[in-house]
Amino acid sequence: MTAEASTVDTPLKKLVGEKTAKALASHLDLHTAGDLIYHFPRRYDERGEHTDIRALDVGEQVTVLAQVQRTAVRPMRQRRGNLLEVTVGDGSGGTLTLTFFGNQAWRERELRPGRWGMFAGKVTEFRGKRQLNGPEYVLLGDQTDGEAAASEQVEEFAGALIPVYPAAAAVPTWVIARCVRVVLDTVASPEDPLPAPVRASRNLIGLGTALREIHRPSSREDLYRARRRLKWDEAFAVQLTLVRRKHQAAASPARPRPGRTGGLLDAFDARLPYELTSGQRDVGTEIAADLATGHPMHRLLQGEVGSGKTVVALRAMLQVVDAGGQATLLAPTEVLAAQHHRGMLDLLGPLAQAGELGAAEHATRVELVTGSLGAAARRRALAEVASGAAGIVLGTHALLYEGVDFADLGLVVVDEQHRFGVEQRDALRAKAEQPPHVLVMTATPIPRTVAMTVYGDLEISTLSQLPRGRSPIASHVVPAAEKPAFLDRAWRRLCEEVAAGHQAYVVCPRIGDSTSGADEEPPELDDNGRRPPLAVTEVAPLLAEGPLHGLRLGVLHGRLPADEKDAVMRSFAAGDLDVLVATTVVEVGVDVPNATMMVVLDADRFGV
């Protein structure tokens, strides 16, 4: 195949050689010219804006632009030969040691003090110093390889901006840059799918120009224009996908689930111990109308914690049950699923006791399906779901498993939608014979423009009111390190709330007491000099013995067995505990109205 005939579909082995193409494929999953063209740099280095070596993390695979400061050769103790140590710096005050084993006198001559280069490898630490062992490197402006090679390096590295690519140990960034240059010089630019009038109206450059400038920018301004065009393409593709999904859903048939006078929903409204807000009534009307149509509802319900989303969702579920169908609610954690189960049983009372003595006339059953259910309880619950006796089914990811079958699934409610992917939502929808209605909820405030981008396939409803009697939330930042007296006052304030009959949360970013996985104990200080994030299992005893001595403390985190988590939450909800020390397992939906205060430790670790 000639260079003129090369396209974005051309295999890389025909352009960069079989050996390099094999490395790109096996380490970076890049197979064609188009794959490589869309493998964009992660950052750009400049001669005057070097990577801050002080910010490197141990274990990180890095590429740094640095200058050789000094070299030293010493004999190795454990084996024959010498060890070459090269100290490089980037002008920020930080240094990095490069180590090369064996007799490599030529490297010492090559890595002369004052030379600039790009060095790639995995950051390790030895005797308190960060280093790269046997790194790959390329020296800038090196003319020892002849005039052609020097010219190539000048073109690649001497410009104002040096692209640094997502790379692998076997395929460093400069190898990727060299391959990109070959592809850009030999492959015709892909056809621009955006018509010229659209590009002009949006002030967007052409696709070919954008792809060239993203890899080989002439200036920061050109790089900005390239990024803007490519970001616009990504956002536009997402929007097209969402609009397509929305139109496909609207064209799909669904079984209408109209409201029924004198049914379960009316009985529930009659026994509600409080009055719905006007926002809840308005959103309820929108949802009721959607459920009554012959096309599946796809609606996002957003509102802050305490705005009453669960009651709105429960009323929609009852309307579906009145119409002869079943409704299910998918929750991200067992704690939240169990809380929904308890809350709905309390709200429904005899309306949730079908088949029992004292059940109401239009009663149904409410079942909970989680991964921690025992074998006997699981068989009983799944039988209730499959027979249709359970009109309302609550659960976690366990609802998605094979073997969970519904008699007539009419409504899927997804709580805390951001915790689930579209695939998980679709997996639950697939358990219905016809596309069911879908209501997704989030307590994370989302600006309308963002919501339209992320949830463009959904209609959007917002609960902006808090139910009567709910107090507004006040937040305060306590600079504990600079003013420890402020932290002491925070603990005293918490004790005052408990003394007034209320409860409180203390939230920590880490569980602690683990030797593996994501909870592995971090080093004493990170590279920025910060201590490890505080852990629940460490903080709880300190509080019990210190500022919260005498209060009833409970501990809750994701590593506890499900029955223990449920017991802790029941105790806290019942008022048997004053303070709950927890991780972000309480982030979504743990609703105890008597808890009036929350202390978030290491709030900066949560992105606050």
UniProtKB/TrEMBL annotation:
It holds the Pfam family DEAD. Residues 486-608 form the Helicase C-terminal domain. PROSITE patterns: HELICASE_ATP_BIND_1, HELICASE_CTER. Residues 290-463 form the Helicase ATP-binding domain. Residues 512-532 are annotated as: Disordered. GO terms for molecular function: ATP binding; DNA binding; DNA helicase activity; hydrolase activity. It comes from the Bacteria. Keywords: ATP-binding, DNA damage, DNA repair, DNA-binding, Helicase, Hydrolase, Nucleotide-binding. InterPro entries: DEAD/DEAH_box_helicase_dom (IPR011545), Helicase_ATP-bd (IPR014001), Helicase_C-like (IPR001650), NA-bd_OB-fold (IPR012340), P-loop_NTPase (IPR027417), RecG/Mfd (IPR047112), RecG_wedge (IPR033454). The keyword Transferase does not apply. GO terms for biological process: DNA repair. SUPFAM superfamilies: Nucleic acid-binding proteins (SSF50249), P-loop containing nucleoside triphosphate hydrolases (SSF52540). The keyword Membrane does not apply. This is ATP-dependent DNA helicase RecG.
